[in-house]
Write a structure and sequence with these properties.
Helix content is about 45%, strand content about 20%. The protein has about 110 residues and is of the alpha+beta class. It has two domains: about 15-50, no CATH class; about 65-105.
Length: about 110
């Protein structure tokens, strides 16, 4: 996936992934792939009560997909600027759909 060189980068580079941490307080962690650096933590409880089943995992999946979603959008905009609408549509169709699958956990 191509990204614009002009885009400012202040975030931890992707890809990110998520996994369950069952320490003292069970939670989902978003980590950076190269060395498992924590990026975010998704709690499974709010006010001492568990969140609805599947909600913490869905939140973690969406956050972990953020770098791919950003790259897909950047790629589509770059295609629009350099090659026009047809190229941007093709980029969104390919990279955007892949990023959405990653974000939603769809097969």
């Amino acid at each position: 996936m191509t990204t614009s060189a002009a885009a400012p980068r202040g975030h931890t580079p992707g890809p990110w992934r998520f996994g369950e941490n069952v320490g003292k307080r069970p939670r989902w962690e978003i980590v950076e792939g190269a060395d498992d650096t924590p990026v975010a933590v998704i709690q499974r409880f709010k006010g001492g009560r568990p969140l609805p089943k599947g909600e913490p995992e869905a939140n973690a999946s969406l956050i972990a997909a953020a770098p791919a979603l950003l790259a897909a959008l950047e790629n589509a905009l770059l295609s629009l600027e350099t090659d026009g609408p047809a190229s941007a549509a093709a980029a969104l169709n390919t990279h955007g759909r892949a990023a959405i699958k990653l974000a939603t956990g769809a097969p």
